[in-house]
Amino acid sequence: MQLHWKIIIGLVAGVIFGFFSSINNLGTFSTNYIAPFGTIFLNLLKLIAVPLVVSSLITGVASLSDTSKLSRIGLKTISLYLITTAIAVTIGLLLVNIIEPGNYVPDSYQEFLSEDSTSQAFDKKQQANTLKESRGPLQPLVDMVPSNALNAMSNNSNMLQVVFFSIIFGLAIIGIDKKFSQPVLSFLEGINQTIIRLVELIMNFAPFGVFALIVKTFSTISGDLGYITGILQALLIYMSVVILGLLSHVMITYTTLLKFFSNIKLKDFFSKMIPVQLVAFSTSSSGATLPVTMKRCEKDLGVNEEISSFVLPLGATINMDGTALYQGVAAVFIAQALGIDLTISNQFTIVATAVLASIGTAGVPGAGVVMLIIILEAINVPSEGIALILGVDRILDMIRTSANVTGDAAIATIIDSSEKS
Ligand code: ASP
User: Fold this and answer.
1) 8, 33, 77, 421: which has the fewest C-beta neighbours closer than 10 Å?
2) 22-32 pLDDT tens trace
3) Which of 75, 87, 57, 11 is nearest to 283 (CA)?
């Protein structure tokens, strides 16, 4: 049986068992005996992310015969990332303005939302405030340059710093005598091959890991369902808008780009992406999915390592089309629910801030909702409004993360084709 079928079985079994365990009060059993396997799977993926990025990026950059290629690839990557993210938010905004899911929220909820009603919403607000306080306009640039390479590598959330270090290290290797550079490169190449083999081994465990992660997530989600009933209809419509937007973005934007700007067959692209999307879905983390995305792109889609090792880690940190689309829909949904009319200029502000926010959003579960607060504040909508959507946020997080990683892989494939032609 193909791996993705096994993962799908694990996923479906996880959903069923997750709901079953919360209905039958088996929560403690799940937490004690099932959830840990999910955590182990997640940790195994995170464990290899930094060595994989370092070894493949350094060898990739060092093998560039001409260094101007790096700036060309960089420029293309960042432009495509920004353009596709802006398209994603626009699709989200179009749908949410046409369907208006917020109008289905009963008026009685407005009062509930305008107070600092849930402690969860309050926590997220605190997180957003700390984020904002520490950020001057040039802070993202400063953040990219680590003051200690080992320190940067000791934490998966410093991926941009790791990318920066690996690029300058790779560039410096080009300039030294072969006698010195060769052993370093052979060593890193060996590490790279070993890690790719490790990804294969870890993925054998994926069906069980996915099962365990999903059991944990779904028993928590069903716990949240109580408060949701009063606004069920509105939330269902809101979720459908986000999902429809994500599907449209993947099926229209990426499909068109891949069709016209890559040599790959669409069918091949999407079938090879299934395991990547399933891992993203169950981990809700682009960062944790990165090793799987890299392996699939290199081994199955034939993306050149020097491209994938640069484009994909960067994408996992700064390219979040799914997140940006969701943020656009959620911001307008909350405004509609609170009876706040948004002007066209507000909508432009959403596009601009969502594109920037998605760059600043870390590839970890739930990061998108924290950045959503910054968007709400930019358009003067009370950020307590996020209380409305928190209960269903995890499920949307799973879906938007799948869209995020698909976007990274699509752009890597397109850039690879453009360099080969
Ligand atoms: N979980 C998302 C990711 O890792 C980020 C977010 O939207 O919360 O891509």
Assistant:
1) 421
2) 788 887 888 89
3) 11
Q: Which atom of ligand 1 is nearest to the CA of 367?
A: 8
| Best residue among 249, 369, 375, 400 to mutate for probing ligand 1, ranked by most atoms within 8 Å of CB | 400
Residue nearest to atom 1 of ligand 1 (CA): 365
Q: Rounded to whole angstroms, how far apart are CA atoms 384 and 369?
A: 12
Which residue is associated with the tokens 């948004």? Answer: 342
pLDDT at 412 over 70: yes
Question: Which ligand 1 atom is nearest residue 284's CA?
Answer: 1
The predicted pLDDT at position 421 comes to 75
Name the CATH superfamily housing domain 3-420.
Sodium:dicarboxylate symporter (1.10.3860.10)
pLDDT of residue 116 exceeding 70, the answer is no
Task: Flag whether pLDDT at 119 surpasses 70.
Answer: no
**Closest atom of ligand 1 to CA, residue 323:** 7
**Cβ(323) to ligand 1 under 6 A?**
yes
Is 293 within 8 Å of 312 (Cβ atoms)?
A: yes
Count of other CB atoms within 10 angstroms of residue 109: 18
Return the ligand 1 atom nearest residue 288 CA.
Answer: 4
DSSP-based three-state secondary structure for 244: helix
Domain edges within the chain:
3-420
Residue of the CA atom closest to atom 7 of ligand 1: 368
